[in-house]
Write a structure and sequence with these properties.
Helices cover about 20% and strands about 25% of the residues. It is an alpha+beta fold. It has one domain: q2cbj1_9rhob like domain (Jelly Rolls, Sandwich), CATH 2.60.120.620. It starts with 13 loop residues before the first helix and ends in a 13-residue tail after the last strand. Mean pLDDT is about 85; it is low at about 170-175. Bound molecules: 2-oxoglutaric acid and fe (ii) ion. Fe (ii) ion (FE2) binds next to loops.
Length: about 230
C-alpha cells in the first residue's frame, strides 16, 4: 500500500464528510481532512479544554487495565477521558456516534462503542511509533484523532506521522509515511490494527482528541473492560 498525500479540505455538512471518510476507509484504510470538524463543535471543545485544570489531566500510560504502565521512553503526554457530563463532551460524543452509525450502515463495520480522551502534549512531549490495536487481541477497530490547535505553524512540530506497511514491493519502502500537521479542526481516521503511527515532539502546547470505535467485547456477564 502506498500512502498518498492527497487530502481534502472540507466545507460540506457532516453527511458529506462522513461519506468521504467511508470512501477513504474502503479505498486506503485512512482518511485525513483539514478543518473538517464542524466549527461550533471545535470551538466548544477548545473552550472546554481551556477550563480544565491540571488535575483533570493524568499521565497517559500504555497497555490496558492491569498491564497499564507509564513509560517515559514511549509517551509523555497527559490525557483526560471525555464523558457526557459537559456540553462539549456531550456534543462530541453525539457527533462521534453519528459517524459510527453512518459507518456501520455503509460499511457494516459492527462498531459498538466509542471511547475518547483529550490529550495535552506540552513542549517536548511525544508518543513513539505504535499501533492502537493488535490483530486478534484488541477490539479497537477504528481510531479517530481531532486537533484543537489554533495558529499552528510548521515550526511548531508535533506532527502525527502515519506509516504504511513496509513491503519489499513498495517503491518507497520504510519511508512510506504521511505527516499530518495538527491544525484546528483537522480530522484523521484510520484502521487501528493497520497503521503504526507516532507523534513527533511538539514545540508548544498541543491539544487533541484521540478516540476509538470498538467492537463488542463483552464475555458472558463481564462488561467490556475499560482501557
Ligand atoms: O495526537 C495524535 O496525533 C495521535 C495520538 C495517538 O496516537 C494516541 O493517543 O494513540
Ligand atoms: Fe495512537
Amino acid at each position: 500500500m502506498s500512502l498518498s498525500q492527497a487530502q481534502t479540505t472540507h466545507s460540506g455538512g457532516d453527511k458529506s464528510l462522513f461519506e468521504l471518510i467511508a470512501n477513504d476507509i474502503v479505498e486506503k484504510g485512512y482518511s485525513i481532512h483539514p478543518h473538517a470538524l464542524p466549527k461550533n463543535l471545535s470551538e466548544l471543545l477548545l473552550q472546554h479544554i481551556s477550563k480544565l485544570s491540571d488535575d483533570d489531566f493524568k499521565r497517559a500510560g500504555i497497555g490496558r487495565s492491569k498491564d497499564h504502565i507509564i513509560d517515559d521512553l514511549i509517551r509523555t503526554d497527559e490525557i483526560s477521558w471525555i464523558t457526557s457530563n459537559s456540553e462539549a463532551g456531550c456534543s462530541w460524543i453525539k457527533w462521534s456516534e453519528s459517524l459510527q452509525a453512518y459507518l456501520n450502515s455503509h460499511l457494516f463495520l459492527g462498531l459498538f462503542s466509542f471511547e475518547s480522551h483529550f490529550s495535552h502534549y506540552a513542549k517536548g512531549d511525544f508518543y513513539k511509533k505504535h499501533k492502537d490495536a493488535f490483530k486478534g487481541e484488541g477490539n479497537r477497530v477504528l481510531s479517530i484523532v481531532v486537533y484543537l490547535n489554533q495558529n499552528w505553524s510548521a515550526d511548531d512540530g508535533g506532527e502525527l506521522v502515519i506509516y504504511g506497511e513496509s513491503s519489499p514491493d513498495s517503491p518507497v519502502g520504510d519511508n512510506n509515511h504521511i505527516s499530518v500537521t495538527p491544525t484546528f479542526g483537522t480530522v484523521v481516521v484510520f484502521l487501528s490494527e493497520e497503521f503504526p503511527h507516532e507523534v513527533l515532539p511538539a514545540r508548544r502546547d498541543r491539544y487533541a482528541i484521540a478516540g476509538w470505535f470498538r467492537l463488542n467485547n463483552s464475555i458472558a456477564n463481564n462488561i467490556d473492560p475499560a482501557s
